[in-house]
Amino acid sequence: MYKTNKHPALVPGRGMSGRRNFLRLSAAALAMPWLASLSGCGTDRPLRVAVQPWCGYQFLFLARQEGWLKAQAIELVETALTRDSVEALKQGKVDAAALTLDEVLLLREQGHPLQVVMVFNISAGADVLMAKPEIRTLQQLRGKRIGVETSSRGQIMLNQVLQAAGLQRTELIVVPMGEDHLQHYQEAPMDAVLTYEPNLGKLRALGLQPIYDSRQAPNLILDVLAVTPEAASNHSEALRTLIAGHFRALRLWRTNPLDTSYILAPRLQVEPPQVAKVYQGLDLPDALYNLEYLSPPAATLTAYAESLAAIMREAGVLKQRPELSDLYLADFLPSEGALR
């Protein structure tokens, strides 16, 4: 579930990919008033961070519950969907957001110079192509209806499936989906679905079986914390506190999974014994790994971003090769001395 030595998903040739938003909270709880209620900039207000209910981000809320993130310095703005977090960033309503790397590259191309200051997690089997039992190989997808999330990562995973299957997009019937994959599957006839937990488990319960996952599409999508230049300049101490809180909460979960599972379970909408299963297929790099990979020249992560960008261009998601020289920023991570 997590690694204590060399981080395998950050080693060339090892598996990982894809991603999503995961666990939509109720529309009533996360309705749009949060967006309308935010206003203004300036250093006299808290650092505002848009956070979706994806499992990899929930250690921030664990840190808040433990009292490590003070409300006067840091405000976690809960959003239901990726597009909500993206819109909040575009409108200047938040200073940072938990996003996938592909979303960060897309926003940078659109003129938003975000920087990655932390890696939350890396998919290593968490993104799965589920198919009806009669479909046992990727080649059998020819002529079938496949549900694909209408997001850049959905297109990236589809691109990888097509390559692995030796098929062209025109040889499939792509069914566009939102982020509630189970609902889309139940409402529209499909033969296969690109998905992730908790939809994965629910689709498995309906009889679908995995035939491909992100271990076969290595080093493509990372969940990261992206910040604006203004946030990096005006909220440096709050960023350090936020990031330290995430790693502290991650360490608490690793050393005391029983108690922390009872805290995480309601947010993940599962029973406490199921929390560990939710994190299967994810690598969760700690502070030391983040420091190693984000510190200049961040060669390994830059190479992964280049590979991801090339796939996004091939899929028509990006228009040009992105500038990556300033993508990663390690300034707010704990120092190596502090980690010893």
Q: Which terms would index this structure?
A:
340 residues, alpha/beta, six-stranded mixed β-sheet, 14 helices, 11 strands, 16% strand
Report what the structure shows:
The protein has 340 residues and is of the alpha/beta class. Strand 6, helix 5 (152-165) and strand 7 (173-177) form a beta-alpha-beta unit. The chain has 14 helices and 11 strands. Helix 2 (59-65) crosses helix 9 (236-255) and helix 9 (236-255) packs across helix 10. The protein has a 6-stranded mixed sheet with strand order 2-1-3-10-4-11, with helices on both faces. A 5-stranded mixed sheet has the order 7-6-8-5-9, sandwiched between helices. Helix content is 38%, strand content 16%. The chain starts with 32 loop residues before the first helix and ends with a helix.
